[in-house]
Automatic annotation (TrEMBL):
This is Peptidase M14 domain-containing protein. InterPro entries: GH29D-like_dom, Peptidase_M14. It comes from Microbispora amethystogenes. Residues 1-30 form the signal peptide. Residues 796-815 are annotated as: Disordered. Belongs to the peptidase M14 family. It comes from the Bacteria. SUPFAM superfamilies: Zn-dependent exopeptidases. It holds the Pfam family CHB_HEX_C_1. The lineage of its organism: Bacteria, Bacillati, Actinomycetota, Actinomycetes, Streptosporangiales. The keyword Hydrolase applies.
């Protein structure tokens, strides 16, 4: 597969990625409560079982009481359901004494077992550090690049890996100020140690360093004695043919809600029927709708026991907003609790005692409402967040329930019909398909207008721009501007930080109106590959968490629609999931298991090289709008440059269908030259900034289409070479290079190479091609296959021909 529209045949640079880069003793507590004692807590009574325990108290006065009692409290306090959580160092006897006084003493945070594990880990770390200190470390350069961003400000980015992984190893970089200048004349800086999931990855600058001149070389030295000097190459800036004078762009002038962007692509399909159509996706969303609710009582502190809430049976938009509830204090003593319903108005007459005081508790009112046939047909009632509800309620006037939704009437409250715009002259599955989708996360307002801008450019330039016509004539493009329409509406009109969809999977213990901004599923955690249900990190099964993966994989209609699309149109070979913010360009794998940082299988080296090669073309296009450069350190597999995202869509499409998928995070940090620091732009920057982000990343989406078109037209067969790297009297080391991203299959036992033969791998994360060592003179046989499936020299791996490559690697002194 060719690397860019203007392909150059260069061997060595393709398969070698560019250089860039005490705890206090806390013994085990034997829990004196009647609850079962976990096995890891039951075995030790060291130091009388003293441990750091959670204690939940109702208010600050109770905290003060603990202090007055002389309890050893940690400097920690946190509001929780039911009051305030504090942490106390207690023996079993002290814990029981507090329980006897009515304090809610809960589980242990840490104990002697934790202490022992920490001490053992510390000893191991000290031993490792001592061993490392005894010898000079080896530095492996990963990347060293300079680039420009915005206003032509220059920056330097360096990544280097030390063989000494301990935190005491310090790396320092020094660079020149251009050709012929002295080492260090450009500046020096200490590098940051980058760790992930507790594992050392490499050293880097925490952010690219601004420089006045483009360096040619950088020298990195280690406090352990290691040193390496590498050339500094230019990152991005690929020369691109300027758009034709007829090319038009900039079709957006405001943020759009999902109804508007869906209407926009529908109108485009109607205007350009020869090259576009709408695909109605089969699964309608739950809709921008909720039950109407009302809460009685504040739910704070002791008042939680007197608090309850009600939810309408019907959605608010379907009659729930017309339901009302009143809590009536009768004018007589000794009145029983009763419920009356008139139309949609519910009245609870509270019980009174002999003195005429109200005696109905929250639990009793809840039971009465749920037990009355007429009332329960209109609403359900629940105590506050699982509270027993034994507090007496107060009278309240008739209160109308409300769904609280604020969108205008132009936003339908019914299940949303998701749509994709299909663009292409030949929409019959014969052309390579590309899936561009935006706004999986509701609060990312720039992304849907990015997709709309791309669709507008493709269709409105088709008639007059030859480059656009080549794209549309030779690809089958699917544009989904909003993958989360319900959440998108909620973010724009109700709660701007909404990330998830609007489907409420929480039980009644998390169903009160105060949780209304905490419901929904993170759609980019709801897919089937590397999910939280498979043990991967970066999602949760807690329904109120922003990375809630849902009750099961593909539980949501929005995610099922994506899967349906790529399954229904198997010609889709490329995908781009556009998110915000931070300025990233990423690809699979996107998830790992924290223990051992076990990632999903990495792409083979040829595919990884394709990802890297394409990034130059795509990110240069992004840079072409206003100069924004996506940092080298924010380019690469998701797990290497961001975090683990269990159950994300790019992994779904890549591992299940082989779809080459990327992730954009629009909204790169902007460097403030006056303040000499980077500033983040956020999810919803002022539209002036959001517009620029949409324009530059629409450039990037168009460049992805160019890469896909080239893939579809690629008939070039790769050329590969064996490159010797080192040789002595006992061994020789070599690797392979190719003129384009390709996989190399080889044998060193004299046999005929096939697709089952060893495949050239990566030397390590961001480290380039594998180095192969032989200990005797060896005839190496090999061939290369590019990403499009073209085989070098038309060799038939499953046949019996011998037109593969052959070369003898000689070892001096051995035959």
């Amino acid at each position: 597969m060719r690397s860019s529209p203007r392909r150059t045949r260069r061997y060595a640079a393709v398969l070698a990625l560019p250089l860039a880069l005490t705890l206090n003793a806390l013994p085990v507590l034997a829990d004196p409560s009647p609850q079962p004692v976990p096995p890891d807590r039951a075995s030790s009574t060291a130091q009388d079982g003293v441990a750091l325990l959670r204690v939940v108290v109702p208010d600050q006065a109770a905290v003060d009481r603990l202090v007055a009692l002389g309890v050893d409290l940690a400097e920690y306090t946190k509001p929780v359901d039911g009051g305030i959580e504090v942490h106390a160092v207690l023996s079993p006897g002290e814990a029981q004494g507090l329980r006897d006084q009515g304090f809610d003493v809960r589980d242990a945070i840490s104990d002697q077992g934790d202490y022992a594990a920490n001490i053992a880990e510390r000893r191991q770390a000290l031993a490792s550090a001592a061993a490392d200190a005894a010898e000079t470390d080896t530095l492996t350069p990963l990347r060293a690049e300079w680039f420009t961003s915005l206003d032509d400000q220059r920056f330097l980015s360096v990544e280097v890996k030390s063989s000494a992984t301990d935190a005491q190893t310090v790396l320092t970089a020094a660079w020149d100020s251009g050709p012929g200048t002295a080492p260090g004349s450009g500046g020096t800086a200490t590098m940051s140690r980058f760790t992930d999931a507790g594992q050392y990855m490499y050293h880097r600058f925490s952010a690219p360093i601004p420089v006045t001149q483009a360096p040619t070389k950088v020298t990195v030295t280690s406090s352990r004695g290691g040193s390496v000097t590498v050339p500094v190459t230019k990152w991005l800036g690929e020369k691109r043919k300027p758009p034709s004078r007829h090319y038009v762009s900039d079709f957006i002038d405001h943020y759009m809600d999902p109804t508007e962007v869906t209407g926009r692509i529908t109108a485009l399909a109607g205007q350009f029927p020869k090259v576009a159509e709408i695909v109605d996706l089969p699964y309608k969303t739950n809709g921008y709708r909720r039950a109407a609710q009302a809460q009685f009582g504040t739910g704070t502190g002791a008042a939680a026991a007197s608090t309850f809430y009600v939810s309408s049976r019907a959605y608010g938009s379907e009659g729930g907003n017309d339901v009302s509830l009143a809590l009536v204090k009768p004018g007589a003593a000794g009145t029983p609790l009763s419920v009356a319903v008139t139309g949609k108005n519910v009245a609870v007459t509270l019980a009174t005692d002999a003195s005429g005081a109200i005696g109905s508790t929250a639990a009793q009112v809840v039971a009465a409402l749920n037990g009355d046939a007429a009332a329960s047909a209109l609403l359900t009632a629940a105590t506050y967040r699982g509270n027993a509800g034994n507090g007496v309620v107060a009278e309240a006037p008739a209160t109308r329930l409300t769904d609280g939704l604020l969108a205008p009437t132009t936003v339908s409250r019914q299940p949303f019909q998701m749509k994709a715009l299909r663009i292409g002259k030949h929409r019959d599955g014969s052309k390579v398909g590309v899936f561009l989708y935006c706004q999986e996360h509701a609060r990312e307002w720039v992304t849907p207008v990015t997709c709309v801008e791309t669709a507008e450019r493709l269709l409105r330039n088709y008639a007059q721009d030859a480059a656009t016509r080549k794209i549309v004539d030779n690809l089958d493009i699917f544009v989904m501007p909003t993958a989360n329409p319900d959440g998108g509406h909620y973010s724009m009109y109700d709660y701007n930080m909404q990330r998830r969809n609007m489907t409420n999977h929480c039980p009644v213990t998390n169903g009160d109106p105060g949780r209304r901004n905490s419901w929904g599923v993170d759609l980019n955690r709801n897919f089937t590959v590397g999910s939280v249900f498979d043990g991967y990190n970066g999602a949760t099964t807690t329904c109120t968490n922003d990375t809630f993966a849902g009750p099961s994989e593909l539980s949501e209609p929005e995610t099922r629609n994506q899967v349906w699309l790529v399954d229904t149109f198997p010609n889709i070979r490329f995908a781009m999931n556009t998110h915000s913010y931070g300025g990233y360009f990423m690809w699979p794998p996107g998830a790992y298991k924290t223990a051992g940082r076990e990632t999903l299988p990495r792409a083979d080296f040829g595919t990884e090289s394709f990802f890297w090669n394409a990034s130059s073309h795509i990110l240069s296009a992004v840079q072409g709008w206003r100069g924004t450069a996506i940092w080298p350190g924010r380019t690469g597999p998701v797990v290497d440059v961001l975090y683990s995202a269990a159950g994300n869509s790019a992994d779904e499409h890549w591992y299940n269908r082989g779809i080459i998928g990327w992730d954009f995070e629009v909204g790169a940090d902007v460097y403030d030259q006056a303040a000499k620091q980077y500033r983040a732009v956020g999810f919803q920057p002022p539209f002036e900034e959001g517009h620029e982000e949409a324009m530059e990343f629409s450039n990037g989406q168009i460049a992805i289409l160019e890469v896909a078109r080239e893939y579809g037209e690629d008939t070039h067969k790769p050329d590969s070479r064996l490159k010797e790297l080192a040789k002595d009297d006992t061994s020789a080391t070599f690797t392979f290079t190719t003129d384009e991203p390709a996989n190399v299959y080889y044998t060193i036992d004299g046999s005929r190479p096939t697709l089952s033969s060893p495949k050239l791998a990566a030397a390590g994360m961001r480290e380039g091609a594998q180095r192969i060592t032989v200990n005797q003179t060896t005839e190496v046989h090999w061939f290369a296959v590019d990403i499009a499936g073209n085989v070098e020299k038309n060799y038939k791996p499953d046949g019996n021909g011998d037109n593969y490559n052959k070369e003898t690697v000689k070892v001096r002194g051995r035959r």
